[in-house]
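Hey all, quick one. A colleague (J.T.) asked me to put the zinc ion job into the tracker so the inputs and the structure tokens live in one place instead of scattered across chat threads. No bug as far as I know, just bookkeeping. Sequence used:
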Amino acid sequence: MFIVEPIACLRDNYAYWLTCSETGVSALVDPSEADPVLASASAHGRTPSFVLCTHHHLDHVGGIPGIAARFSDIKVIGSSYDKGRIDGQTETVTDGDQFTVGGISVEVMLVPGHTLGAIAFVARAGGKTAVFTGDTMFLAGCGRLFEGTPADMHKSLQRIVALPADTQIYCGHEYTADNLRFAASLEPSNEAITRAIAKTADIRSRGLPTVPHSVTEERAINPFVRVQFAELRHNLALGAEASDVEVLGAAREAKDNFR
Ligand SMILES: [Zn+2]
């Protein structure tokens, strides 16, 4: 089995511990900054063996030099596309590559869109699946298209939601409340979104993270994976004839301008 624990970093970033419960072997996902991660390592008595980088942006990899200075044997795994873009990267991986963190099997999924080198890490052990999506998929949202196209993002999101229904999704930022406000503007009659807004407000009022959601939850609320639905299309001024990619592009543009 495995345990996943978020570490709050910067303003609204999450780094994560991914730890094998049998062996105690740990990986750190997306360490934005070193200080909170090193403090958490001391508090939990953990020695990370790996850093898993979803993409090269500084608010995901900025902590690596400080962490590598403390744990010198650490392997830093990032996309082959990001070679030269991640300070401290020691290993390059690409779509379909697999490795283990103790007894956890980890598979690399190339998910371009937010960046072209973006990868998701799919962790499996004891019949459980979790996916670390970085800034490609957020709870109830997706990342901005800095390098990729709407077609890239559509394909990437569809790959993520094709994982088993109970897969737990861990993303790079706490954007859930804002994302749900946007989702509700596109699908005001979607009751799953209304319920998610109430649940999110309750969780945030207690200062807790909203991660994770399951694939099933995201399929019910995330506008960027719900591009086929009529109400959402109608509110983007698109009809049944528009392609799913066109709808995703229009939704992303609307979100970029949503206040
Ligand atoms: Zn990013």
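Adding what we noticed when we looked at it: Residues 55, 57, 114, 135 surround zinc ion (CB under 6 Å). DSSP finds nine helices and 14 strands in the chain.
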